[in-house]
């Protein structure tokens, strides 16, 4: 009797293991392929900036497609891929996993949609890419202040013009680094100074931003 019960127990666990493995296999087999879209804006952000550079008007933007099937990157080289941008056909072609375009603020935030057929399944994915405006931030002190431009369509701060003022009076940035201000003042301790910088692209004059900070003299 004991052996009979043991055989039943072993048989039960064997069936359970087979069922569990079969269920796991079917569950994995039924996982839908995952469409992944990523984008990159070719606008300027200072070195060390941990965020994502955002596009502004006229920024070049790159969008890339990957498809994960069973945890692996799928081969789409022979798949006809269609890209729509802001509701209109933009590009299409076999294996077309990457597109580039120039952001147009008159059309709002760029909306990219990719669609294609993969192994008899219609797949699509869309992303909205937020448009920003140029920004500038003042950092540093107490003697040297620096202007950090963000999201301009420039390659470096050398392609921008920086205009400094203190309490409304124009002051010059440092000779070789116009994005930096060497604050020289004989104001007594406790005096509040208003420091302002205006940054403007030398490539597109319409790209301009300003920043203000208050600084209390303490030496």
What are the SSEs and their pairings?
Elements: H1 2-29, E1 34-41, E2 60-69, E3 72-73, E4 80-85, E5 88-94, E6 98-102, E7 111-118, E8 121-128, E9 135-140, E10 144-150, E11 160-166, E12 169-171, E13 180-182, E14 192-201, E15 208-216
Antiparallel strand pairs: 1-2, 2-3, 2-6, 4-5, 4-7, 7-8, 9-10, 10-13, 11-12, 11-14, 14-15
In short:
By secondary structure, the chain is mainly beta. Helices cover 13% and strands 45% of the residues.
How would you describe what is shown here?
This protein has about 220 residues and is mainly beta. The chain folds into three domains: about 1-25; about 35-130, Immunoglobulin-like (Sandwich); about 135-215, Immunoglobulin-like (Sandwich). It has one helix spanning about 1-30; strands spanning about 35-40, 60-70, 70-75, 80-85, 90-95, 100, 110-120, 120-130, 135-140, 145-150, 160-165, 170, 180, 190-200, 210-215. Strands 1, 2, 3 and 6 form a four-stranded antiparallel β-sheet that branches. The chain has a four-stranded antiparallel β-sheet with strand order 5-4-7-8, with no helix packed on it. Strand 7 and strand 8 form a beta hairpin. It is elongated. Residues about 5-30 have low confidence and may be disordered.
**Strand portion:** over 45%
Largest sheet: 4 strands, antiparallel
Q: In which range does the helix fraction lie?
A: 10-25%
**Which CATH C-level class of the largest domain is it?**
Mainly Beta
Oligomer: single chain
Mean pLDDT: 88
Number of distinct beta strands: 15
């Amino acid at each position: 009797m004991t052996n009979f019960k043991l055989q039943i127990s072993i048989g039960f666990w064997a069936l359970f293991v087979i069922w569990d493995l079969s269920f796991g296999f079917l569950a994995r087999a039924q996982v839908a392929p995952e469409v992944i879209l990523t984008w990159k804006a070719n606008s300027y952000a200072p070195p060390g900036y941990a965020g994502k550079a955002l596009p502004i008007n006229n920024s070049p933007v790159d969008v890339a497609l990957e498809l994960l099937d069973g945890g692996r990157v799928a081969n789409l080289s022979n798949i006809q891929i269609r890209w729509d941008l802001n509701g209109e056909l933009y590009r299409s072609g076999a294996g077309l996993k990457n597109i580039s375009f120039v952001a147009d603020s008159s059309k709002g935030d760029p909306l990219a949609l990719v669609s294609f057929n993969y192994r008899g399944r219609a797949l699509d994915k869309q992303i909205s890419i937020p448009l920003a405006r140029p920004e500038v931030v003042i950092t540093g002190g107490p003697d040297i202040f620096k202007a950090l431009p963000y999201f301009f369509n420039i390659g470096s701060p050398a392609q921008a013009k920086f205009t400094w003022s203190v309490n409304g009076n124009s002051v010059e940035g440092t000779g070789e680094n116009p994005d930096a201000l060497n604050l020289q003042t004989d104001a007594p301790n406790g005096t509040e100074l208003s420091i302002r910088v205006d940054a403007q692209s030398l490539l597109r004059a319409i790209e301009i931003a300003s920043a203000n900070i208050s600084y209390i003299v303490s030496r």
